[in-house]
Specification:
- Two copies of one chain form a homodimer.
- Chain A has two helices and nine strands; from the N terminus they run βββββββββαα.
- With 162 residues, chain A is mainly beta.
- Chain A has a single domain, classed as Elongation Factor Tu (Ef-tu), domain 3 (Beta Barrel), CATH 2.40.30.70.
- Chain A has a six-stranded antiparallel β-barrel. In chain A, strands 5-6 form a two-stranded antiparallel sheet.
- The radius of gyration of chain A is 16 Å and the shape is globular.
- At the A-B interface, strand 1, strand 4, strand 6, strand 7 and strand 9 of A face strand 1, strand 4, strand 6, strand 7 and strand 9 of B.
- Strand 1 of chain A pairs antiparallel with strand 1 of chain B.
């Protein structure tokens, strides 16, 4: 078997209905203006128990509006061509998106989040807690990406991956 | 459509052939003893360009040997029951695993990594670069998970998710 298949576990609700003009990563959207909701299928709501103790969570989702796969791209935060796996660009073979968002509230099967950098209606595949002891490597080097969190905050997407 | 489907992009080679006795996350495997290889399908090797500038990468993979889905689990690093989405346990609906590993070398379509905490033969779905400006939230709170990186290093998996 060389194909992976899974059911969606829910959907992400945001203010964004088109791929241009969006924040680049939750790092560019850590403001009240970028709140959103995650609605989990009710049959899975029990699995959200204890999630409210975490301030940040990974959302792993399907970049469902992307149509082209490219091996070489110019990422939003750069001006040069890069290999797709050295970027977070959406035109990747898997079409998997990943965002670390701030978790504001859990209400039954509904999460309120800040840092919503995805399209409204994006299908959700998994949620994982952000765990500092697992997820924060010491002194990482980050290749071509020299922009600061502040640079990211000022950046918006354009239509290059539509 | 309520199903996500994608092709594997490669395979992960490690020393582990069974699910018990493994490190818990790459944080428990940051030693020479836990090196492994990632072999990318040759048709996608061009997409690895520039990846060698990054010291750490996310591997997103299929936990292909897990057979049971559970909404409530006792994670390896805890003694109490938790909701599956508040843990990194494998019995999750998506069967998606995620590890931040150290990238030691890129040779054509083959990556040498350290922090290999997955089974040998694990099918790979995506690679993303670890980018500090995106991936390192300030002062995260981490719920039930009070263990330090050092605690994680001492821990090994057992057969609870087999």
């Amino acid at each position: 078997m060389s194909v992976y298949t899974t059911d969606y576990i829910g959907v992400i609700r945001t203010q964004f209905t088109e791929l241009a003009g969006m924040p680049v990563q939750p790092a560019g959207a850590d403001e009240d203006a970028f709140e959103g909701e995650v609605i989990i299928n009710e049959a899975l709501a029990e699995g959200l128990r204890d999630l409210d103790g975490f301030s940040h969570i990974y959302l792993i989702y399907h970049l469902h509006k992307v149509t082209e796969t490219k091996m070489i791209v110019i990422p939003f935060m750069d001006t040069l061509e890069r290999g797709i796996f050295a970027t977070r660009s959406p035109s990747r073979p898997s079409r998997l998106g990943m965002s670390i968002v701030r978790l504001l509230e859990v209400n039954g099967n509904c999460l309120k989040i800040r840092g919503a950098d995805m399209l409204d209606g994006t299908p959700l595949i998994d949620i994982k807690p952000y765990i500092q002891a697992f997820d924060c490597p010491n002194n990482p080097s980050c290749g071509w990406m020299s922009a600061s969190r502040e640079d990211v905050r000022k950046k918006r997407s354009d239509d290059r991956f539509v």
